[in-house]
Amino acid sequence: MRVQNKSIIVTGAGGGIGEGIARRLAAEGGNVIVADINAAGGQRVVDSIKAAGGTASFFQADVTNSAQVKALVDEALRLHGRLDVVVNNAGWTHRNRPMLEVSEDEFDKVYAINMKSIYLSAIHAVPAMRANPEGSGGSFINIASTAGLRPRPGLTWYNGSKGAVIITSKSMAAELGPDNIRVNCINPVFNPDTGLAAEFAGGPVDEARRAKFLATIPLGRFSTALDVANAALYLASDEAAFISGVCIEVDGARCV
Known about the structure:
By secondary structure, the protein is α/β, with parallel strands linked by helices. It has a single domain, classed as NAD(P)-binding Rossmann-like Domain (Rossmann fold, 3-Layer(aba) Sandwich), CATH 3.40.50. It contains eight helices and seven strands. It has helices at residues 16-27, 39-51, 66-80, 104-130, 156-176, 197-201, 207-214, 225-236; strands spanning 7-11, 31-36, 55-60, 85-88, 138-143, 181-188, 247-250. Strands 3-2-1-4-5-6-7 form a seven-stranded parallel beta sheet, sandwiched between helices.
């Protein structure tokens, strides 16, 4: 059990990559809070984790709302007495289109969910991690994207938000290192099975669009939720005790 009894929050865990991360961490002994704005999806994930013998609870939260993020952290402390890991997975994108066609409201939503959520998680979770006994610290895992490293036209403002996640993660790692708080990020490549796939692709993920994306991945397949979850498991575990300020590309060599 690689994260036995660790107190873990996973945001956006009511489906897709977040669900995969929550399931994987729970299977390895983590006490997982499944956080999502979608109550039905989040509770479904919790029920499936419990059915498999894991420990999980659901907490409904909007990650762009400071009071709700604070309440989420407080719930982890109430249930588990500490907070060890925060996986900032909740994300959003505007539809793939020319940059000048993206509305101001869409832009604001992308940056609020992808970037402000990390600010809020730090504001409320860092004090909890600093309070962990014997300087045991904690770990943030921020889910960014290959789009933040190798941007392509059509997703300009989304690309920028994920680039901000990457550099912010590195800066957090440098600043929080003395508190034994590690900060890393994961950059997944396109996954056609996520709820946002059609937005990334600019329309239904038909065979033509699948082929276009697949041609950019040397290993010849798309990423899966389990691929990303395995990377998150490593970063959350004590095996990564000296790993901080890095980004792991889960991309089949897309970014080479």
